[in-house]
Design brief:
The protein is mainly α and about 230 residues long. The protein has one domain. The chain is built from 8 helices and no strands.
Length: about 230
Amino acid sequence: MVERAAQIGFLLLLVAGIPVMSWLTANDPQVRTLPRRSLYFSAAVSQWLFAALGLAAVRVAGFSEAGLGYRALALPAFAGWTLVLVLLAAAGLGVLVLLERRGWWPPEPELVRLLMPRTRAEKALALALLAPTAALAEEFLYRGYLFAILARSLHSTGWAWALSSVAFGLAHYYQRPHGMARAAVLGALLAWPLVRTGSLFPSMAAHFLIDAAAFGWLGPLMVKAEGGDGPAA
């Protein structure tokens, strides 16, 4: 009984609690006054805390490492899947940038612009802290644990794929509806190799590369083009 309650509680945290926290963050004016470095450390710490709770939930659920997607792939397969994910994500983001320039896609919300690094030090911190944190913690939480628990509970890989992707989108509420939709589609894309190969490693590698490109190049370029500014570093 206690084990079942713990599983349900952590499941609710992923599908409802984290989206609510994201909503609170998006609507908290004090967040916009914080230095970017503080925002980076806060985001990383919160994700690792969720991951720690996830590890406890894994023990309760009795999943093996392989059952969560921690399954080695041959190097050519790993590299191939990673490359496919990165190229598809880059193509999709490129299309969205073009649509945004034509006014056919909403511009990035203020909080997203504030999170983008401005200085070399901020870029280095984002690349060293945020990108690997997202790649490891988010993939474990959404494509690892959540996907596995949904697949086992619903007896359906398809529903697990869809619902875990929606939950991943909702976790990005601070990016507003269009950002949540983008994150959900990205989540579905990142789950593709897991569904086909049972391995989470290509998803982790691709997630890191996608976020690294966003923090190191695409995001700052967007900020420069829009003339945005943010909190003091």
